[in-house]
Amino acid sequence: MPMPKPRVIYWFRTDLRLHDSPALKAALDLKPESLYPIWTWDPHYVYRARVGPNRWKFLIDCQNDLSQSITKLNPHSKLFVVREAPQTLFPKLFKAWRITHLVFEKDTDAYARDRDTKIIEIAKEAGIEVVIKTGRTLYDPDELVKQNKGKPTMSISQVQAAGAKIGEIARPIPAPKSLPDPGETNLDFGQERPLKTPDINAIQRNGEENSYSTLAGPNGDFAAPTLEELGLKPATTPHRGGETIALRMLSDLSDNEEYTATFEKPKTAPTAFDPQATTLLSPHMHFGSLSCREFYWRVQDIVDKHKGTASQPPTSLTGQLLFRDMYFGAQAALGYAFGQTYNNPNCRFIPWHLPSDIDTSTGLITGKHLTDSATAQDHFQRWKHGRTGFPWIDALMRQLQHEGWIHHLGRHAVASFLTRGGCYIDWERGAEVFEEWLIDHEAACNIGNWQWLSCTAFFSQFYRVYSPIAFPQKWDKDGDFVRRYVPELRGFDKKYIYEPWKAPVADQRKWGCLVRGDGSGGSSTSEDGDLLVYPKPMFDFAAQREICLQGMKNAYAVGLRGDDKRVLDGTWRKLFDDSAEGPTEGESGPPGAMVAQEDRGEAQQAQDETTTTTPVPKTRGSAAGTKRAAGQTTLDGLVTRKKKK
Ligand SMILES: Cc1cc2nc3c(=O)[nH]c(=O)nc-3n(C[C@H](O)[C@H](O)[C@H](O)COP(=O)(O)OP(=O)(O)OC[C@H]3O[C@@H](n4cnc5c(N)ncnc54)[C@H](O)[C@@H]3O)c2cc1C
């Protein structure tokens, strides 16, 4: 009997593009009789992963653009968005569409691995052949780990060494010129509706979530859901998704050969906007609307033919892509443990404020946190909502919330401020806010960079703290960035733009904004008529910095990692005395986390803090840190500015 011709589901997930898709090529190489390009609308992301309206919008843009591109190649085809969890949907789809093969791009995120293991099992049971290809990163993260002696990749030089063993990064594959018909798209089966609770994204909604009304959507046309169907608040980001836009952006970048060949990340201004100083291709990398190899080779070819001195990894553009692979390699080796301190052998244990709540039966963080200090909780909320009273920090956090993207050194500034260089709050809280608001949120990169910035992994020079005043001044003396994102301060003289609380009250009045309060009333008009209000700084930065340094120094001296028995069973408390930052007294409490305790009031807190300000020597030799990895000096260095032309 002749073999039946393949009937293939191509499952889009991390690869919303047609160009350079090794998995799509593998699907087409099967010469299918029918090719079904599908997206499964997975309730995990709708209800259980933090995603704000801006990232939803970017995703939907990417899906709509891809669908149109598919239809251009074959008017009978499109991206078929099917609204059910893949685990329950696939067995039904396999039967209904008489599928022989399932093809997809490999995803090494912790949740995705679990999901895919299950799907592979289901496919096997149904007699379906599964084809999986790497395409999301320059190297297969599992292969990187294997070539790094089975260990997580923790530096660029490790990625380069492991990469050299794997071989040259593959050249991109052109987009297909045609696509096979999809065949019948009947859905003669019931829909398994997901449980709507718990809904971690409830705060993102102002309407009812209704995206699971039917399998093929309200019009039966397999369209991607709209923000309205998701009950989401309106998106505010100016950044648009889709392969068409991504390829145009890459083309504009490569037209600017000088910029591309000489790009050095530490010389790009975090205060630049309109245009920003870096490529802003990260959300396209996240959704796969741009292939990382297309990006890499477009840049490398320009570098190779550049007449002058081209930049090199780690600061060059290709170096940035290697950083991305480094974090994917670290995540691939550690799985869920990578995303938390608890049970993570690579992560230093530091008794931060607002530690994660841990489910000791699974060893995983629950997504909730303990409020060990009402002051820290207040600081966290003020940081999150851009009301710290430090205009540089507030401008960045407001840009993040509104636009979903901030420059890398801006991310450094706010991450350092929240953790070891200001609030002494757990990096996991910051990573959650970024997860909610970034349009480029990439679990591996977000987690890894938060660990880097908080000096819990990858980087250890905790005595290098970003000042919210001196650092932005190096880039933007006039404070244009602050004026853009903190409009209350628009009229302030540049002398006070980063320290508005120092301006004489008469001048504050003249410039239309009074510096007072904690910002909880918003920037609304004060009782003085037309004047705006901007909050006072939430603490004395210099004093707080010293407290943090002392805490870090102490935690480094104690030297625990997240998988230390004493972290797991909670006896770490015996090792931290009261001279460290924060309340650590008491020997009982939940494992891995600080003792939940009553707030002792601001006055008492202030008194505690003044007793813990022992100055820390600022010499480099004083930190009990690990060896410095290549690129660390320059990456967050405070060096001369370079604007995108
Ligand atoms: C606390 C913190 C959290 C971060 N969270 C994320 C995240 O969730 N997703 C994300 O993609 N990046 C994250 N980054 C890394 C980096 O800030 C962004 O990738 C970068 O700013 C995106 O802008 P761009 O595309 O203009 O970058 P460019 O400078 O133009 O770099 C080109 C590409 O290289 C990659 N890249 C650059 N820097 C890094 C880096 N440090 N780590 C990993 N990849 C990098 C990105 O894909 C980026 O698009 C984070 C950084 C910090 C400090």
From TrEMBL:
FAD binds at residues 278-282. One of its GO terms (biological process) is circadian regulation of gene expression. It comes from Massariosphaeria phaeospora. Residues 581-592 have a biased composition (Low complexity). Binds 1 FAD per subunit. Belongs to the DNA photolyase class-1 family. This is FAD binding domain of DNA photolyase-domain-containing protein. GO terms for cellular component: cytoplasm; nucleus. Pfam families: DNA_photolyase, FAD_binding_7. Its cofactor is FAD. PANTHER family: CRYPTOCHROME, CRYPTOCHROME CIRCADIAN CLOCK 5 ISOFORM X1. Residues 6-138 form the Photolyase/cryptochrome alpha/beta domain. Residues 576-645 are annotated as: Disordered. One of its GO terms (molecular function) is FAD binding. Keywords: FAD, Flavoprotein, Lyase.
